[in-house]
Design a protein that fits this description.
alpha/beta; Rossmann fold; three-stranded antiparallel sheet; 8 strands; 15% strand
């Protein structure tokens, strides 16, 4: 059994993006960062001066925005994101957009619009998709589900390092505070909260390299294949 869909969920800073990219390269699958889609909507909300509290307007924007993923040059290269024809790969990664994305992602109409787009991407063949609700809502029948997590301190350190690498000045305390706020919103929202799918393989990334985690997932796939 070679899976057609691999769903990887978990909180920010757990290492989902790197693991998902490497795994997709190993399997020869399409890699999709679903979080980038919510960040893209958040960016358009800000650019169009839309009030995030206006759920109708934000949902309408989410239904019309055109998001295209551009593969990186190498397996571990960052995936490019184009929105309505513009390259927003860097613009969507700043902390302000990440925080706004957490807000707009709680709007039912936004989630409905983007889940539809995500499911359409999954119909193209093998896909590794990572996010918050991939194994529970987007692809509840995915052959392989993974929930990747890490300790709050480890996640904050990783996110702080990533933000600094993008030329944005911030402190570890600010990153941790933002992380805790986002975790609260993700876990408590009424629509598609961050939860572990009953049949997901749970992996803590503390002290592990991305390659080691990918190895665990590939062994899990082999186990599923032998049982199937």
């Amino acid at each position: 059994m070679k899976p057609q869909t691999v769903a990887i969920d978990g909180p920010a800073g757990a290492g989902k993006s790197t693991v998902a990219r490497l795994l997709a390269a190993q399997l020869g699958f399409l890699y999709v960062d679903s979080g980038a889609m919510y960040r893209a909507v958040a960016l358009k909300v800000r650019e169009n001066a839309i009030d995030p509290a206006d759920e109708t307007a934000v949902a309408m924007l989410a239904r019309t925005v055109r998001i295209v993923f551009v593969p990186g040059d190498t397996a571990d290269a960052e995936q490019g994101v184009h929105v309505d024809g513009s390259d927003v790969t860097t613009a969507i990664r700043v902390p302000e957009i990440a925080s706004l994305a957490s807000v707009v992602s709680a709007i039912p109409g936004v989630r409905s619009a983007l889940v539809t787009q995500q499911q359409a991407l999954g119909t193209q063949g093998g896909v590794v998709m990572e996010g918050r609700d991939i194994g529970t809502v987007v692809f509840p029948h995915a052959e392989v589900k993974v929930f990747l997590t890490a300790s709050p301190d480890e996640r904050a350190v990783r996110r702080h390092k990533d933000i600094l690498s993008r030329g944005v000045d911030t402190t570890i305390d600010a990153v941790r505070a933002d992380q805790d706020e986002r975790d609260g919103r993700d876990a408590s929202r009424a629509v598609s909260p961050l939860t572990v799918a009953p049949d997901a393989l749970e992996i803590s990334s503390d002290g592990k390299t991305p390659e080691q985690i990918v190895g665990e997932i590939l062994r899990h796939i082999e186990t599923l294949r032998s049982e199937g």
